[in-house]
Structures are given as C-alpha cells and as structure tokens.
Amino acid sequence: MTIDFILNGEDVSLKADPLERLSDLLRERFGLSSLMSDCLAGFCGKCVVYLDGRLVNSCLVPAFKVRGSEVVSFEGFKSTDTFDAVSRAFNDAGAEFCGFCDAAVFMAAGSLLDSAERPGEDDIEETMSTVYCRCSTPSITLGAIRGAVEAKAGGKYDRAR
Ligand code: FES
Ligand code: FES
C-alpha cells in the first residue's frame, strides 16, 4: 500500500505493509535514529513521536493509520520553540540525562507545553510516565515541567506548533 503523510514538515510517500510499525518505517526507511525500538509493546515510551499533534508510541501505530497525517519525530521537534522552552526548563532545573532516551523525555514534556488546555498535576505525571527513563530524577524533571507550564500560562512562552 502507498502511504502518504507529512514527516517533519515534508510530504513523503512510500510503499509499506499496512501493518508495518511506524517506528520501523521511521527508523529503517527514513533513518530517524532518535526514536528507539525497545519493548515494542507500548511500555517504555522510547519510540514516541507526535501524530497529528498527539504524543504516541510509534511502535503501536500501524502504517495504514498514518496516511494523510502529520508525524513529527525528535529530529523535527528540535527546531521548534517548544524544544527551546523544554531545554531551558531542564537546564534551569539542573536536570541531567545520559542521552539514552532523552529525546523521548523532551517530546513528552513538549506535548504538555503544547497542549491546548493547561495541564494539571495529574496530566504532567501521567504524560511523563509515558517514557521509562531510568537516569533522570523525577522530582527535578517534573518540577522543571511544572515551571515551564507556569511560564507558558504567564505568557512567557508561545506555542510552537
Ligand atoms: S518501543 Fe515503543 S513503547 Fe517501547
Ligand atoms: S536519558 Fe538516560 S535513561 Fe533516559
């Protein structure tokens, strides 16, 4: 089947098995190495991307569901104002990452900053628990995101998408 979609702002088209995992498509056909295929079962969150603006585990998304959609991987996310805001928040809070899955952590945080509704404490904890990151300190990362959400609510940050 032909799959047409928008990937990181560009129109793309390719032939794929309708049930091929989006994570495999992105890694193997487009060489996007930021997302990882680890558990392949929706547990680790290391394969997250934005699908039409929603944070999803791409290992659970079959190729046919992507037709006509917009996909943003970390490679595209890195050039947004949201990424800058997340980076600033983590830097200011002294958050440190080993680099194994920080792309996924940043995207999870970005989805909170870009949500139309102001995320509450439960939203923040639930979204950040999407990514099973072993090296970051939850009290620091969650505190950083709370601060960024506050800053956005105070008009110090504009939505990037
Ligand atoms: S590889 Fe997709 S959630 Fe773990
Ligand atoms: S960035 Fe180190 S385990 Fe996630």
Describe this structure in words.
Helices cover 38% and strands 14% of the residues. It is of the alpha+beta class and 161 residues long. It has 2 domains: 2-76, Ubiquitin-like (UB roll), CATH 3.10.20.30; 80-153, DNA polymerase, domain 1, CATH 1.10.150.120. Strands 2-1-5-3-4 form a 5-stranded mixed β-sheet. Helix 3 crosses helix 4 (102-113), helix 3 (81-93) crosses helix 6 (138-153) and helix 4 runs antiparallel to helix 5. The longest helix is centred in the last third of the chain and has 16 residues, at 138-153. It starts with a strand and ends in an 8-residue tail after the last helix. The mean pLDDT is 93. One FE2/S2 (inorganic) cluster (FES) is lined by residues 37-40, 42-47, 57, 59.
Q: What are the SSEs and their pairings?
A:
Blueprint: E1 2-7, E2 10-15, H1 22-29, E3 48-51, E4 54-57, E5 70-72, H2 74-77, H3 81-93, H4 102-113, H5 121-128, H6 138-153
Parallel strand pairs: 1-5
Antiparallel strand pairs: 1-2, 3-4, 3-5
What's the number of helices?
6
Which CATH first-tier class of the largest domain would you pick? Alpha Beta
Q: How many strand segments?
A: 5
Radius of gyration: 15 Å
Low-confidence stretches: none
Number of domains: 2
CATH topology of the largest domain: Ubiquitin-like (UB roll)
Estimated helix fraction: 25-40%
- Strand order of the biggest β-sheet: 2-1-5-3-4
What's the name of the CATH homologous superfamily of the largest domain?
Beta-grasp domain
